[in-house]
Amino acid sequence: MAAQRRWHTIIPRDQLSNPPEGIPVTWLKPRKKLSKIYVHPPPRSMPKKCPDPVGVVTASQLATLDSSGARARLFDKENTEGVRVGDVLHVRMREGEPVSGVCLNIRRRGVETAILLRNQLTRVGVEVWVKVFSPLVQSVEIVQRRVRRARRARLYYMRQPKHDMGSVEGLVRTYLRQRAVLGSGGKGAAEMLGKKGKGKGKKK
Amino acid sequence: MPPRPPLTWSSLPALALRPVPASLALRPVPTSLAPHTQTRGIRSILPVDLRLSRWDQDNPHAKSPTALSTDKALERKSYTLPHRTGVIARKKGMTAIYDPETGVRTPCTVLQLDRNQVVAVKTRKKHGYCAVQVGFGWRKPQNCTRPELGHYAKARVAPKEELHEFKVRNEEALLPVGALLGPSWFKEGQFVDTKSNTKGHGFTGGMKRHGFSGQPASHGNSLTHRAMGSAGGSQGSGSRVHPGKKMAGRMGNESHTIQNLKVLKVDEENGIIVVNGCVSGPKNCLVNIQDAKKKPWQATDLGLPTRPLSLETVVEEAVVAAAEPVGDAEVVAAA
Predict the structure, then answer these.
(1) Which of A27, A191, B21, B48 has the least CB density, counted as fewest CB within 10 Å?
(2) What is the value of ipTM here, to two decimals?
(3) Model pTM?
């Protein structure tokens, strides 16, 4: 099986019985035939059984954090009714103040998926990364959709004074008031708001 | 010219018994040769008892100072030697784990074990210390040398991609050869040390490699902004570069141990171990995991196994695997 190595074939075997002149006899000794070594079969391969362990850990996390899969759908790239960059979002936290702002970036990394929200507080630009699958995030609501689809994946140009959207506080207040009047939505309805937000965007 | 001393000491009576020629009497006699009969030869063909005498305590030759000092050294070191062997894993990437109650996010590294098997053990009697040689993964027999194949055949295991030896405290920690070690060798909440090679950075300058400050960007500087500067003093310090001077050179790809990482998850079915925080090295690098040296021994609290899966299970696994088509695992290497 193993390839014949160079030092095995100094002299071809068929010449062994017919030694050439002037070569020591010891060279011509027939090589001892190597014994066979049994190669044991390997146990079952774990990488074949589970080629993506990080995906397995992520899936088990999402099963507890996002059992209905609604939030994953909200940030799915294929979902046309989901969140896109340029949308104004309102994020309620389990405790503390809600966070709102225009979404500059969506970082899709499984359970680590996060959004970057930009807002202005007391005329100072503020940016916050929100981990969307964190148990501390109660709901993510779309306040206003971007009128046209953004042609960039990351809207960092909105940090420039020329493009800065300013404070989204007014937009959020109007949205919350309207929602209270309509009486729909409310807590736990975050995932419905993908559709609802779109309707609003059209209206405006 | 004085007569030369004989070359073969063993063929003559002891040096002290021999009459010393007057011409030799004034020469200093090598003390090491005086009482002993030195045997010269090839170690590997000496009789077995002489070969093993160095470590074997039952052998009268073992009373040598070497053996005694080794005993003492092992006794001193036993404080930090783990009670159990470690395993080899592959780093698959990083993610995070959330606690649904508190919302605390814990960054973590996902490691995957693959066919970890005990290939050999080293004993105090034969080798001078106790260790377990563990193999990882599978290697094509065509890519192994004949001595390697012989080593695996002796252990009745398939050729391994990687071998590593884990030192253990005593003979009790030695495992049967062929034993399969899975992720359940570790328990959630346990602390482990991970050892792997850091990412290689290639040839880097002093600023990146050692954190030198470099030179100013302006104030008359020209063309030297990232140079390391002086390598030492002049005549006062010997007009030489001191050994160990930090300079530019190859950075990374060095062994690096991270101690006391908590085990967050263990998944026997998929061969997964998730540890807290980061582990050195790129994705798909091999990582050695062993019980934490600097934590108290947690076997009783956590119920850590000290024996692996039964050998019967291993054999069953192998039989199942043999039934599956696995390329040319059945290859019998011949000349």
Answers:
(1) B48
(2) 0.76
(3) 0.75
